[in-house]
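Archive entry: two folds, one per protein. Generate the first.
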Amino acid sequence: MGVIGLGTMGAGIAEVLARSGVSVVAVEIDDDGVHRGRGHLEHSTERAVTGGKLDAGGRSALLDRIRYTTSLAELSDVDLVIEAIPENLEAKSDVFAQLDKITGPDTIFVSNTSSLSITEIGVHTARPGKVVGMHFFNPAPILKLVEIVRTVVTEPEVVADVVAFAERLGKTPVVIGDRAGFIANALLFGYLNHAVRMYEQRYATREDLDAAMRFGCGYPMGPLALLDLIGLDTAYEILDTMYHQSRNRLHAPAPLLKQMITAGLLGRKTGRGFYTYDEPDSPTVTDAVTKSTVDTVPPREVRKVGVVGTGTMATGIVEVFAKRGYEVILRARSAEKAAASVARVKKSLDKAVVKGKLSEEDAAAALGRISPAVEFEELADVDLVVEAVAEDLAVKQAVFAALDDVVKPGAVLATTTSSLPVIECAAATSRPSDVVGVHFFNPAPVMKLVEVVSTIATAPDVIATVDAVCAAVGKHPVHCGDRAGFIVNALLFPYLNDAVKMLEAHYAEADDIDTAMKVGCGLPMGPFELLDVVGLDVSLAIQRTLYNEFREEGFAPAPLLEHLVTAGRLGRKTGKGFKDYSAR
């Protein structure tokens, strides 16, 4: 096999090939390039030995399988050649045109491009049927996903050979058509770009944006930290390429990206991007955490908490507060509903005891702190009341109007809405400065994230109070303004909607898209698995809310999502969604 280009990616690919027993001819443009590439390989394999993933003999054998050169002519007898030079169409096309004259007619040409058209590269050869994309993910020796990109003229047996080759390397291949960004980047970079726009608009701090996606979605990294790792220049090139093919405004690189690149702030590789690092290529962040205006404001005292509602979220919030020592009043519409909710809390506490996460004494004490109630007047002396009723604005407004009549002055009034405007709830009261959004994530006893949503009227000490309460109950608060989707849903659901559009266009199968995002990006669930868990009806409602607020064409719900909801295929809860669960 041949590998052209020994940057981080090319050297990683050469290591993967040599590790599988393949003899590699590695080509760089000059001796300095060869020296750097050899250094990448020696450093990476030394780390593998130190980590116990390779022994000294295996490392020596691996390195012996790689021959370095600065001449493309030495690729004359290879069976397959992988090009891994920088993302420049003209440069890649020129390399392939030269290879066409050097190699045998059956040699397969592979480009590792992450965003350029394989078709446009292949037409510069006399063998476009033997040109294919093979997009490895960085670091290539570790990440399993490989996107195999076929063009309209790629020979089927070439695709089959490359898929078998990827499997021989221990990789997980997915086969897709030739479209900007392929699967993973097409879905990932729209989400990353959206996060940059949020930061650019000062909607949320870099720490809160990143924490929201880590704690709220289980992502291994937040979007801005990930951009620093990828490199802002690389991200810009991928987004720009995607935009020129899709003309989707959501792919147009955020202006802040260009400004940072011009200033030399490229991310970890230069030591500074969205964060500042102790040195280039270091993961250690050294700059101070972004300060909030509420950091110096004293919070109000909270000893007694009221929770309005009896659903899963309400009972979860009751459990969270009761376990942490707060006296909690659970207000329901009837004594029967209140009793049933308390029973559900007891069942959850009992499970925690069985699992060894809670002692019997602590469980009993927590249950003893919960008082059921039916009348709003029983909430008169609470310091904080959390509304957790149905996602219906009229219902929530009626609750806030009732609370306004009975709850003592100075109490904080919070709504757990995930999508409705908090200011609309505040407007139903005579004390809008005391109203705040406190969006817990389900299941509330488990999930650490709480989105703290301030309206234009929310008082600073109300935010400080909620922050202090979150700390007291072991939650991680992130702050944002009062607009549709807050942070998590505003970033998550356009990405999910893009995945549906990709499936709708017959570009890739649902299972392949899920695999690409889980294996290639380290996400805990693929988009279709997640949509089926959330519920397609809930997902559609959130997507419609985002579209109605922002009026972005790219936020318009995918027709396929609308059709599935109309057909009653709502996901796991109905047995069928994007996947069929009826036999499980």
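Generate the second and append.
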Amino acid sequence: MAREFSSVGVVGLGTMGAGIAEVLARSGLDVVAVEVDDTGITRGRGHLEHSTARAVAKGKLTEDDRAALLGRVRCTTSLAELADVDLVIEAVPESLELKADVFTQLDKVIRPDAILASNTSSLSVTEIGVHTSRPGKVVGLHFFNPAPVLNFVEVVRTVVTEPDVVTDVVAFARRLGKEPVVTGDRAGFIANALLFGYLNHAVRMYESRYATREDLDAAMRFGCGYPMGPLALLDLIGLDTAYEILESMYRQSRNRLHAPAPLLKQMITAGLLGRKSGRGFYPYQAPDSPVVVEETAATSSTVDATPRAVRTVGVVGTGTMATGIAEVFAKRGFDVVLRARSEEKAQAALGKVGKSLDRQVKKGRLTAEDAAAALERVRPAVEFAELADVDLVVEAVAEDLEVKRAVFAALDEAVKPGAVLATTTSSLPVIECAAATSRPTEVVGLHFFNPAPVMKLVEVVHTIATAPEVVATAHEVCRSVGKHPVHCGDRAGFIVNALLFPYLNDAVKMLEAHYAEAADIDTAMKVGCGLPMGPFELLDVVGLDVSLAIQRTLYNEFREAGFSPAPLLEHLVTAGRLGRKTGKGFRDYT
């Protein structure tokens, strides 16, 4: 039976400590809050009063409940007043020396059976716990900011934490209305370990001028459904905070992907800390303002070249992506030639477009007249010669380089001079397709996301040979069909896959190392970071074989040790456990 906690101590009344104290008091617990001096107490009380006043204003708390809540929090400057509490949660600044000193002092004053918990977000709980005579009763209890709002905590067990302590703290977190996950004591625990590697990778992309800040952020919002892009999120977290977490993770993991990007240090030195300083990757209206202000110098990815006119579009392929792209163009008034390898496949592809349009009519998203007109604009074809007069060709065949090169060689012979040739590849080099033609300046990547009629993002990929007006044409065409184009160079994974799949791979490595269960990792990223799907849910949807192929492509291009595919991912693919499509992946769907 889980032990009962009736009184809890909180050491440190900064934003996080005050938030934790509020959460505890809301649950009816008596709280003893300790700060170093009266100034700290006054500031901490101010945090509590301000937060609870906001809750009253929003109708989430009555005035009587607020008064009772504040009455349950007793503030003091003496650690000795924690002598009789059942649990102490330390929430002092993220310094190992400071936390170790606090735990040494706490060990001398609290009861022998009381539990000590640290709210550290990235430091080693083991290193903190060894400064006590009871490391078995030391655990990490990582609340997320703002603690009264985010219903997620990480319970961190060390190699010596007693099992019943973990069980009791998990039950306690649930009593507070939080969703706890259990993880081993590793750099960054679950959420930060997976999140900050991804954020750091995005900074390196921006630092190398591979993509603009707007395009990096838009790519992850529109391509993955993330609530915020990585650079905007770093501004919200604070670049100094992010740097400290990455430094701590790197010291523990020695993973080069955790080494903070040099740009972060430069921005911190210049005082560009994010929203709290009024400027980070973006400029803000004022310190702590969420409102981004326009800059005089253009930073967007628009291309300073005149786009070519595009009236007729060719689409090569008959799969879901090809028919989806054909539908996208036809619905926006473009004449489309849909090329297949046989008459039978051509008619089947046309049938798929028709069924998709019918579904949208039934859902009220399209009128029957508009659907019929769109279908009328799609003409099936078998010969490449039938693409002779199109202004743009989009290749959407299998993700096989030799197949794509053969298609581009055929297009080069068949299509008129001046037409733009585009590939929808998600990971193969666009320049390889361009090299199969006599007109590499006319070749560009147009990476639509699946399902093409629904997903708003298109990655416009320029090679070292692509002409500026071809890039401008691709950009304008995307805008004209209601898509959001982002621009990047011709590197494996482009933007989205290059940021997404190393994060998914890291999650597999975390599971493989038995630091946390798949369900807890998924919960951490969904509840703790607000992502639409957990990494293992997403891997099962994408397909483990597809994920492995992309990860291998990234590793082979960048030769980065941290990008090497997780052995567990390779073993599952070898065993035929590919995700939802086979009924088993990381979960069993049978």
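Annotation attached to the second fold: The radius of gyration is 28 Å. Residues 38-57 form the longest helix (20 residues).
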